[in-house]
Specification:
Distance between the termini: 112 Å
Shape: elongated
Number of strands: 40
Largest sheet: 40 strands, mixed
Length: about 725
């Protein structure tokens, strides 16, 4: 600091010399002063100093314009100080009397100063290199009791080191429009008060600094600061992992001597922690290496958190201890990427350990909370955090007559591995537009994966799970299932079953194999002596008057290929290959008195193939085979004998229809525009009170028109009639 005083003394001495010169020589004197200041200041500061011009009346003041001080050796490599104009006012009489140049200065006015301050990687400040500590042999610093006034200043601050630990990246803060004053009027004490404007908002700094001792106090007030930048800059262990974002107002006070004491009040506005809404005041106290963080009614996810955290993050035996009270945290906002867990959580949070490895004990109660339809009452957990990873020693969600229990680990790469146990859990949700509910009586298994947006969006493709499962009381729409049990696994997007059984009421299905999304798999579904009356879901596809179904069925379905993720069923299954064989006996299924029904076929490459379709009733025997291709094209043949009474039961409510028929024909076209041609012979035909002995017809159908290729012959008693023509079945009354 003494060298700075010597520089000012040099400037003042030169003023005295100037006063001795006559007016005609003033310009040359100014040039001489400029050269001397640049030479001597460059020597003392060990770097280039340059002045644009020198002026003044030589009696009351001197003015320096465009003063530059190099950042390193030369100005071409950057500047640490630039002053557009510096006006030095002094008392000439006092100067002549005391012969003390510094004490004669009354004030210095700096207009447009631009200062660069850096905290370098070696921990030193750049301005320390300007004024090195003087040895004891040097003379005491001269008296300097002037005030320095600043107007329209700029400051750029760059920190490459940090304070508490090495920072993630260099921190930079700039302020402009700086105005204020620096007061040296008290011996060995600098007081200052300045105002400025950062990119985010206004900035105010004030303080007192001892000029003879390492001691001082500095206060900073700032508004609308970028929380993310400051979070990275502070680099406080465990805090820097909170992903803070938003803006905040800052009140900061630093007292330093042998130790540093820091008190910061952060008023968070429109901010987030882990992208979760939060706001309120945070009090941070740093006393040397001890840190205390305190919050009171801090708003987080529509609830509130109050408590205190104490830590020492420098000492060898550092510690971390805290207690917090949680009130009415909104679960839906806490877990925003789902819609099935809702309600509010209140309780206590206890933290204990050190800054790298610590336990978090959380317990509390839920209000109006449901997790996939199950009311949740309580949370109890103990989690160990270890350098960005954590281990769940226990996490229990309790509810009436049961609980969900988790144990496992979560690593800093978002990979998790959990063991789960579930007892008496009632699930309710909506799947594919249907209300789904069931009770997980017992589940024990393991779940692992990587927790990210992709997993939440596509859980079946990104989760590994295995375990034993027992489900009861299941409902899918109007379909009821009394019990499901067996070994299941979810791996690489495939659901794997090792003998999983589904019991509806008394009949059941056995599932073996696997099926999955975007992964080739094979699943077999087997049913023996299955009572189809238990398949209530079939009622959704039958007309109102024929919803009653009954019969005993054998089923064998093989499914290979993979599912596509889609909300539309036809899109979801289009890459599946399915082979099926089903046989139904003694049944009612839209048709009365089915003695035997059999269907053999499959779905391959999107084409539905029927190798055999057989239907036998008491008086009918009908066969068919064919295919429906993935573009909707139909190719099939139908032949056999049938009873109209059996095949038209829905008409019996409106008309009495009897008779026997022999039919053979072909169906072609597409499912959107079908075509047909064939031959039908009907005998003993009754329609209410109308009796026809015989009808013989060759017909075709296309685009809504029925075409009689040959005259249709109708025999009634000894009379016969011929009918020919083309009929519009879609609009019978059109011309």
């Amino acid at each position: 600091m003494r060298r700075a005083f010597y520089i000012i003394s040099l400037f003042s001495l030169l003023i005295i010399l100037i006063f001795a010169f006559r007016k005609p020589l003033k310009n040359s004197v100014y040039g001489f002063i400029k050269d001397q200041i640049e030479t001597q200041a460059s020597f003392l500061l060990n770097r280039e100093v340059r002045i644009g011009s020198v002026s003044g009346n030589l009696i009351t003041h001197i003015t320096l314009k465009n003063l530059e001080v190099a950042k390193e050796k030369e100005i071409s490599n950057g500047k640490i100080i630039f002053v557009r104009e510096a006006k030095v006012n002094y008392n000439l009489a006092k100067l002549l009397k005391r012969r003390d140049i510094l004490s004669a200065i009354t004030s210095i006015r700096l207009i447009g100063p631009d200062v660069f301050i850096s905290h370098e990687k070696d921990g030193r400040w750049n301005f320390e290199k300007l004024f090195l500590q003087s040895g004891s042999s040097e003379a005491p610093a001269p008296e300097f009791q002037a005030k320095i006034f600043v107007k329209d200043g700029k400051v750029r601050f760059l920190d490459e080191k940090g304070f508490f630990s090495n920072i993630i990246k260099p921190f930079e803060l700039s302020a402009s429009q700086i105005e204020g004053n620096f007061d040296f009027s008290k011996k060995d004490l600098l007081s200052f008060n300045v105002l400025g404007l950062t990119q985010e908002g206004p900035l105010k700094a004030q303080g007192k600094i001892s000029l003879s001792k390492t001691k001082g106090s500095i206060s900073v007030f700032a508004k609308n600061m970028d929380l993310k930048n400051w979070n990275d800059y502070l680099s406080i262990p465990f805090v820097k992992q909170f992903d803070l974002k938003g803006t905040f107002d800052l009140e900061l006070k630093v007292d330093y001597s042998d130790k540093i004491s820091l008190l910061a009040l952060l008023d968070l506005k429109k901010s987030s922690i882990f992208d979760l809404p939060s706001s309120g005041r945070i009090k941070v106290l740093v006393d040397n290496s001890n840190l205390s963080l305190e919050i009171n009614a801090f708003e987080f996810c529509s609830g509130y958190i109050s408590g205190k955290l104490d830590s020492n993050f420098v000492a060898k035996n550092n510690f971390l201890e805290g207690k917090f009270k949680i009130s009415s945290i909104d679960i839906k906002k806490l877990l925003p990427y789902q819609n099935e867990f809702q309600g509010f959580l209140s309780g206590n949070l206890v933290i204990k350990g050190d800054t790298k490895k610590f336990f978090v004990d959380a317990n509390g109660s839920f209000q109006n909370s449901e997790f996939f339809g199950q009311r949740i009452d309580r949370l109890d957990s103990r989690i160990l955090f270890d350098n960005g990873s954590f281990n769940i020693e226990n996490l229990i969600l309790s509810y009436k007559d049961g609980q969900i229990k988790l144990q496992g680990s979560y690593e800093d790469n978002n990979r998790f591995d959990l063991n789960a146990a579930v007892k008496n859990y009632s699930f309710k949700s909506k799947i594919m537009g249907e209300n789904v509910s069931f009770v997980i009586d017992d589940f024990a298994g393991r779940v692992s994966g990587v927790l990210n947006h992709e997993m939440i969006k596509h859980p079946f493709k990104n989760i590994f799970a295995e375990g034993s499962l027992l489900i009861s009381g299941a409902e899918f729409g109007n379909q009821k299932i009394s019990r499901c049990q067996g070994q299941v696994a979810l791996k690489d997007g495939r659901l794997i079953s090792q003998g999983f059984s589904v019991i509806f009421v008394s009949s059941g299905l056995l599932l073996q194999g696997s099926i999955g999304f975007d992964k080739d798999s094979y699943l077999q579904i087997i049913a023996k002596d299955f009572d189809i009356s238990e398949l209530k879901i079939l009622e959704n596809y039958l007309p109102e008057e024929n919803k009653k179904v009954s019969g005993i069925a054998d089923l064998n379905v093989g499914v290979s290929g993979y599912l596509l993720e889609s909300s539309k069923l036809n899109e979801m299954v289009k890459n599946l290959d399915i082979s099926f064989s089903a046989e139904l006996k003694d049944a009612v299924f839209g048709i009365n008195d089915i003695k035997l029904a059999r269907i053999l076929g499959g779905l391959k490459n999107g084409n539905l193939v029927f190798d055999e379709v057989l239907l036998k009733t008491k008086s009918s025997n009908l066969s068919a085979k064919g295919s429906i291709e993935n573009d909707g094209k139909i190719m099939s043949v139908v032949f056999g004998e049938l009873s109209l009474k059996d095949f038209l039961p829905f008409t019996q409510r409106y008309a009495k229809v009897l008779g026997n028929a022999k039919v053979s024909g072909e169906i072609s076209g597409t499912i959107y525009s079908p075509q047909a041609k064939g031959q039908i012979d009907i005998s003993d035909f009754y329609f209410n009170d109308i009796f026809v002995d015989k009808i013989q017809s060759n017909f075709g159908y296309k685009n809504g028109f029925l075409q009689l290729f040959k005259p249709t012959e109708i025999f009634i008693g000894n009379d016969s009639y011929a009918l020919t023509g083309r009929f519009n079945l879609l609009n019978p009354f059109s011309e």
